[in-house]
Amino acid sequence: MNFQAFDHYVEQHQDRILAQLIELCRIPSTSVENGPAMAEARDLVLDLCAGAGVATEVVPQDGGPAIVVGRAGTGLRRLMMYNHYDVQPPEPLEEWTSPPFQPELRDGKLFARGSSDNKGDLVARLWAIRAYQETIGPLPVELFHVIEGEEEVGSLHLASFARANEETLRQIDGCLWEYGYTDAEYRPVVNLGVKGILAVDLWVRTASTDAHSGNGGLMPNAAWRLVEALNTLRSADGTVTVDGLQDHVRLPSPEELVLAQGLPWDGETLLQTYGVGNGFLGGMSTGRALQRLLFEPALTINGLLGGYTGPGSKTVIPAQAMAKLDFRLVPDLTPDLVLDLLRGHLSRRGFDDVEVRVLEDGLMPARTAPNAAIVRAVSAALEEVHARPPVIYPTSGGSGPMYELCQAYGIDVASAGVGWYGSRAHAPDESVRVADFFAGIRWAGRLFDRFARA
Which residue from 342, 400, 407, 403 is spatially nearest to 180, judged by alpha carbons? Predict the structure, then answer.
């Protein structure tokens, strides 16, 4: 297929395309707040879909933002695309060079919350659909586009949406997932899976009220109690030490190990991006760090709260303390299993007073085989645009509803997108390189053709 007219169309409309991404990034659609901005972002997505010739349906969700379903094209093969219009909260605001919801172009990059995760990919794919239909003709695949508004808070309603659409999902031949990037050597990256996740709060109360710290050697302290419990859950080198958890970890397959051994993963760049000066936990080598990232579970303290944290001194014994945690899960570790193991672990060590509160339904881990048709089609489209083969990761360190939407219904998945290794998704100064954004439109257009013939 000759894409000369397609590429010319994208080039001629660059200013308009970029303006639409900027308009979407101006909307503070943080799903954790679920305020009026969510409806504003949804409505703009509907407008973008209409401009792309995508027929839409708004599927309301009880207590959450609506899911937008888009349909376009005809063909023997059915392709699903998954994206989301919600974003992470922008805090800490003081660490942004420019305000997070006032998009700014600097040094060939667009800086804004959501520019990389996931509004850049969403706008690029809709413009790929538009450019294809206006320069080549009807899409050669039957497209089913799922665009939700709760990915950043655990996709609370997506599993029930999937169950309600099971008949449709079981006819899907492959899915292009929501995210991706180019690495430090400008190689496009494809991910074939995600880790699962379980998010919990641990709460401790040791008294009915805070007490004078002059009694610190006599009375229980909720903050100390919480720290003591937390210290049993993970070793200093990052190994999760919850009783029995490691016994359930499925070892990577020989194919996954071969794929991982050939990866040009740049751990040093990762450390530099986030300003980490002391290396990986426990002095891990880059190779060992990659193995943990791909194939091992992780436990992170996301935040701590307890006692007095204001200016100056307040000498109190905290009566209550809380920690937010997330477990990243690999195959054979389900959220329910890990929750049971965590509670049993704390109980055996005398921490029955530590209350475990589940924040939301967890997500299952998911992986796709490297030889799946969607993987071959995405890889070929990327190579055609970037003039070099992509780097294929068997999975990623992040999480998402890939199992719940796709693999529970037999759908293979490949994830690639418009981010770059320094995009800083979820962090201050999130950005997308403008050149990568437009390349994402070009390879998405080629994907439609490649997957129709896969």
Answer: 400
- Do residues 173 and 142 lie in contact, with contact meaning Cβ atoms separated by under 8 Å? no
pLDDT tens-place string over residues 273-296: 889 999 999 999 999 999 999 999
Residue 278 zone, left/alpha/beta (φ > 0; ψ -120 to 50; rest)? alpha
Close Cβ partners of 243 (under 8 Å, ≥ 6 residues apart): 341, 344, 345, 348
Q: Does a cis peptide bond (omega within 30 degrees of 0) precede residue 118?
A: yes
The Cβ-side half-sphere exposure at 362, using a 13 Å CA radius, reads 26
Question: Which residues fall within 8 angstroms of residue 301, CB to CB, at 6 or more apart?
Answer: 230, 323, 324, 325
Q: Give the residue among 89, 86, 85, 92 at the shortest CA–CA distance from 70.
A: 85
Other CB atoms closer than 10 Å to residue 298's CB: what's the count? 19
Query: What are the tokens at 86?
Result: 């919600």
Token code pair at residue 345 = 């672990």
Asked if the model's pLDDT at residue 253 lies above 90, the reply is: no
The reported pTM is 0.87
Element (DSSP H or E) covering residue 328: strand 320-329
DSSP per residue, 179-245: --EE-TTS-BEEE-EEBEEEEEEEEEE-SSS-EEGGGTTTS--HHHHHHHHHTTTB-TTS-B--TTT
Q: Are strands 78-84 and 142-148 parallel, antiparallel or unpaired?
A: parallel
Residue 11: enclosing H or E segment and its boundaries?
helix 4-12
pLDDT in tens, 170-206: 999 999 999 999 998 999 999 999 999 999 999 999 9
